[in-house]
What we know:
Elements: H1 8-21, E1 35-40, E2 43-49, H2 58-70, E3 79-84, H3 96-102, E4 107-112, H4 122-129, E5 133-136, H5 140-146, H6 148-156, E6 160-167, H7 186-199, E7 201-205, H8 206-212, E8 245-250, E9 256-261, E10 265-269, H9 280-283, E11 289-294, H10 296-301, H11 303-311, E12 315-318, H12 355-364, E13 370-373, H13 377-385, E14 391-396, E15 424-432, E16 435-442
Parallel strand pairs: 3-4, 4-5, 6-13, 6-14, 7-10, 7-13, 10-11, 11-12
Antiparallel strand pairs: 1-2, 1-3, 8-9, 14-16, 15-16
Amino acid sequence: MIKEDFTKEDKKFMRIALTLAGKGKGTVSPNPLVGAVIVKDGIFISGGFHAAAGYEHAEINAIKNAKIKLGGRLPEGLKMYVTLEPCSIYGRTPPCTDALISNKFSEIIISIQDPNPEINGQGLFKLRQAGLKARTGLLQKQAEQLNEIFFTNIKKNRPFICAKTASTLDGNLAARTGDSKWITSEKSRLFVQKIRFEYGCVLTGINTVMKDNPFLYPRKSLERRMVHLFNEDCSENIEKTFLKKEILITDKDGKRKKIQYFNFRRVIIDPELDININSNIADTSRYIKTIIFTSAESIENKAENYNLLLNKGVNIEVVNKSKNKPAVYNAKGQKIQNQKPGNPNPGKIEKILDLNEILEILFKKYEITSIMLECGPGLLTSFLKSGLIDKFLFFIAPKIIGGNNPYSIINELGIDKMSDSINVKFDKIKKIQNDLLIEAYPCLQE
Length: 446
């Protein structure tokens, strides 16, 4: 591949395009985040981003914004900076390459090629074939990280999994009694609501549901008094608690309007169908799509609960129980030999369901592209052992509660040598009130 030479000006405008692309977080799934900037003679003309799946792409929004600014017509000699290769196929919207060609852009600078095999390189080819100058590779790493969800979807054919933990400085999720309210600050917990919205799905295990009776959806407020809003006579009130996002879209008639967006799913892994039918999760399932994974024998054994959950709007999926305990691999990708038996939490996690089958159903049937994993150490350890975690969000509070605690972040992995440890790469460290948020990636996933 020819290495392109880009100027400081090029980098400046692409950074603006990347910032614009990020405005689509939480609303574009299953599409990628894309931003576009139009420039004339080094002067910014307009920008645009993809706001939501099914609506116009970043390039089209940037073109429309430019036409509004310039009085309806675009001059020749415009340059566009776009964070992802323009699409060249018909999907829910027409190909963006056609709009770029018809509006006679002189140059298109692209951060990274689209990994979708239906597009990969074809957009560039179509632009160049039409006589447009098209270059790629500007701020490529930043663009790939911005779209880490989309790239994982294409390359691994499954949802992107982000594991979020909230722990004390000495690595505990709760005190010995199980009390965990509250480890982190209110500001950190509010920040988690925003992250939940951006991922669009939370996955947890039945142990967490039974212990904490959580709501597990992105909320505007952390106040527990909202539980009084969830009776049948006040069904409209629950939507008042949703953390929604206002987005500007263009409808089929070409009119621009603002809509309130909320499309969130909760996933519970419940092998024995033990969920309380009057839990907060069950009681709010008619308003928030909730999917429970369980086993066939559990449905037979608890037919009454099964039917009551269905009547409450819960989606129940039957999957197989995992036959084998997953192997553990070290930082070099080598299987750890003679590992000690794992020590998961007693009870339900021993009977873990097949995680790969669960992810396949979520990805293909429900079009869930990203998941925030908020669970206890048993299920988290199972995901880690299976190599299914793509990213970590470690919220660490400045508190110490001591050892000999069953609530450590990760259960026993059977690792005896430091050289066999599973390494992670710290990417960003952020202070939130008195807490630390560390974004990290398992090195095996690189």
